[in-house]
Specification:
about 300 residues; elongated; alpha+beta; single chain
């Protein structure tokens, strides 16, 4: 039996290679036929075997080209969202000074219907991000409805995010909380810093293991209450325990890692459309496991 669980504007966007916004307008303008009849309701559900004809080819090209060479590791997929396990070294979306393939390029190759999801055409589906050097989980919206709701959940701190972080030195407290405003570093404008006029930021942590050899280090479970740029890296640098491998924020250890030991290992949230509780985990990548293997 054919399914009827796809919105017409999404079907048009995927087949015509246009944004959801353009597809929405085309449907309302009467430029789309479903099984030979004009359908003007963008939210109309169409079966997989329905014949959809667009009478006007939209002239708008995607702002970002798809690149099937970017491998996207999916942890979860449904009609409304993806959960992706991003490798360290991969930038999430195009930006100033970035002309290399990004996660967005790979996502568009996986799902051309992402074009136009969200207000920024260069960041289709993206509701939060991870630094280039950070690995692990992030959620991507597949529909405008999911994007709006997930963005609101991020703003309201309703998505649980937990990271594994290895920091330099011995953190003495079993648990702790860092509350310090973060803003642009006045001396290094590409970086962030704890500043009196920055945006409020709070980071909670729990010690999971402590190491003494070949040099002191502490493995932490870190939970974000806010999501400022470079928040974990800035906060732990500010208290004298920079993230291992993070040369930009003060790590001078000799441990064999060329990017920050920072991994988004758990995401948990109420599904923005179905209302179901969702929880996802991602194991430490091999390079981070190798660092732990040399510590004792």
């Amino acid at each position: 039996m054919a399914s009827a669980d796809q919105r017409l504007d999404r079907r048009v966007a995927a087949e015509a290679g246009c944004s959801r916004a353009i597809a929405h307008d085309l449907v309302e303008a009467g430029a789309v036929q479903v099984d030979g009849r004009v359908e003007r309701r963008p939210a109309h559900r169409v079966a997989d075997d329905a014949v959809v004809v667009v009478d006007h080819e939209p002239p708008i090209e995607p702002a970002v080209e798809a690149d099937a060479g970017v491998v996207v590791s999916l942890v979860h997929a449904d009609d409304h969202l993806y959960v992706v396990d991003k490798p360290a070294g991969l930038v999430v979306h195009p930006g100033s000074g970035t002309d290399e393939p990004t996660l967005v390029h790979g996502l568009l190759a996986l799902d051309p219907g992402l074009v136009g999801v969200g207000p920024d055409p260069t960041r289709p589906g993206i509701v939060h991000r991870l630094d280039r050097g950070t690995s692990g989980l992030l959620v991507v919206a597949r529909t405008e409805e999911a994007h709006e709701r997930l963005s609101a959940m991020i703003a309201a701190h309703d998505i649980e995010r937990e990271y594994a972080a290895l920091v330099a030195g011995t953190v003495p407290e079993a648990t702790g909380r860092i509350e310090a405003a973060i803003g642009r570093d006045p001396q290094r404008p590409t970086l962030q810093a704890v500043t009196p006029d920055g945006r409020p930021a709070a980071t909670d942590y729990e010690v999971e293991d402590r190491y003494a050899d070949p040099e002191p280090a502490t493995l932490l479970a870190v939970r974000l209450e806010t999501g400022r740029t470079h928040q974990i890296r800035v906060h732990f640098s500010a208290i004298g325990h920079p993230v291992i491998g993070d040369r930009a924020y003060g790590d001078r250890s000799g441990l064999p890692l060329d990017h920050p030991f920072l991994h988004s290992r758990r995401l948990a949230f109420t599904h923005p459309v179905t209302g179901e509780w969702c929880e996802f985990t991602a194991a430490l990548p091999e390079d981070l496991q190798a660092v732990l293997a040399v510590l004792s």
